[in-house]
Prior knowledge:
It is a single chain. The protein has helices at about 25-40, 55-65, 95-105, 115, 135-140, 145-160, 170-180, 210-215, 220-235, 240-250, and strands at about 20-25, 45-50, 70-75, 110, 160-165, 190, 255-265, 280-285, 290-295. The strands form two sheets. The chain has a six-stranded parallel sheet, sandwiched between helices. The chain has a three-stranded antiparallel sheet with strand order 7-8-9, with helices on one face. The model is unreliable at about 1-15 (pLDDT under 50). The chain is built from ten helices and nine strands. It is globular. The longest helix has 16 residues, at about 145-160. Strand 2 (about 45-50), helix 2 (about 55-65) and strand 3 form a beta-alpha-beta unit.
Amino acid sequence: xxxxxxxxxxxxxxxxxxxxxxxxxxxxxxxxxxxxxxxxxxxxxxxxxxxxxxxxxxxxxxxxxxxxxxxxxxxxxxxxxxxxxxxxxxxxxxxxxxxxxxxxxxxxxxxxxxxxxxxxxxxxxxxxxxxxxxxxxxxxxxxxxxxxxxxxxxxxxxxxxxxxxxxxxxxxxxxxxxxxxxxxxxxxxxxxxxxxxxxxxxxxxxxxxxxxxxxxxxxxxxxxxxxxxxxxxxxxxxxxxxxxxxxxxxxxxxxxxxxxxxxxxxxxxxxxxxxxxxxxxxxxxxxxxxxxxxxxxxxx
Length: 300
């Protein structure tokens, strides 16, 4: 195993012509991490599927605060997509992603191939329960097993001190925290609050699927959840409040509403009264885009 020839860059003084080192193999990734470790550096990992936006870059900046060196992965993971989902059309732009990562202070991009992640003969799966049950686990039953598999592989490939994920995918964050604890993986999992547009829409790569009229309607999802969270914190009846959220989303022009649910903030178990921190979560379709969002609900 040889150490990559590109040395870690101090991006605080990097020029615009600098290029972000791109690592394609597990061997190269481990060699780069080993080189940082030899310098006494701590390492943060930011796993992504690419098509990066300001929400992803906020994860990189937070990772930069938590560790000396940051590696971001870009990998559209086939094991978390069902055959009818948008794997083939999921937006991809490695060159653009690399430039954005460099500007945010990332030190290296890990961009493995599908064959590299899942070589011929690959025969292992991870089954997860607990926080994966219900919500997106019902409507995308293949998703969290695929997420658990690829994130476990990324953790073992990079062996970071900390990994940073966004709270926009709140159920995913709770699943990752659960299996990381259950499997004794020595990685600290850090969550970052959802990054939003000025009108409240949660940043998402899938927002690119929205047409102009749909984009104008999309912020109503967050507005409905935010109003409901305030009502629930004030003691409003949960069943009636969730019904109002569904009606408000439907009136805004959303199509199928997969779920609007109140869950415990830590375990994601269903709750009927807000006696400890909870989370209000929703997923609904607007045209070809499936939008998800969530907001905290705190007891009075």
